[in-house]
């Protein structure tokens, strides 16, 4: 079994990333897999903010 608490903590940390942070992670990635992962993470965080803006009529 995996350590669920460990991954919950990682998730909470990743949630706090700003767009500049994800861009830095992409630019400084050592492998294409890392770059792809951080790009997907940035897209996910952006989509979540967009969804919140739409739901709150903030656009």
The Cα radius of gyration reads 14 Å
DSSP summary: helix tally? 3
- Proportion of helical residues: over 70%
Q: Please indicate the percent range of residues in DSSP E strands (runs of 2 or more).
A: under 5%
Sheet with most strands: none
Would you write up a description of this structure?
The chain starts with a helix and ends with a helix. The protein is built from three helices and no strands. The protein has helices spanning 4-15, 19-27, 32-55. It is an all-alpha fold. The mean pLDDT is 95.
Secondary-structure map with pairings?
Layout: H1 4-15, H2 19-27, H3 32-55
Helix pairs in contact: 2-3
Characteristics:
59 residues, flat, mainly alpha, single chain
Briefly summarize what is shown.
With 59 residues, the chain is mainly α. The chain has three helices and no strands.
């Amino acid at each position: 079994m995996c350590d669920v608490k460990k991954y919950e903590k990682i998730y909470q940390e990743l949630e706090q990333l700003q767009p500049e942070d994800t861009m830095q992670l992409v630019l400084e990635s050592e492998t294409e897999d890392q770059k792809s992962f951080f790009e997907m993470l940035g897209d996910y965080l952006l989509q979540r903010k967009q969804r919140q803006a739409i739901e709150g009529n903030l656009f």
